[in-house]
Amino acid sequence: METKCFVCGRTDKDVVYLNCVHQGQGKLVCVRCLPVLIHGGH
Ligand SMILES: [Zn+2]
Question: How many whole angstroms from 24 Cα to the centroid of ligand 1?
Fold first, then answer.
């Protein structure tokens, strides 16, 4: 599986990624984008 944040597209090896489900699909999100998801972004 490719390690890539579905929000920002980051693929850095030194960044922590978390598994999540978005629109019914399992995806990875980096910790930098996590606050954006939590707070709703936009
Ligand atoms: Zn990200």
Answer: 18
Distances 37 to 12, 29, 32 between C-alpha atoms, Å: 19, 9, 10
The one-digit pLDDT tens for each residue of the chain (42 residues) are 689 999 999 999 999 999 999 899 999 999 999 998 888 755
Q: What is the pTM of this model?
A: 0.77
CB-proximal residues (5 Å) to ion ligand 1: 5, 7-8, 10, 30, 33
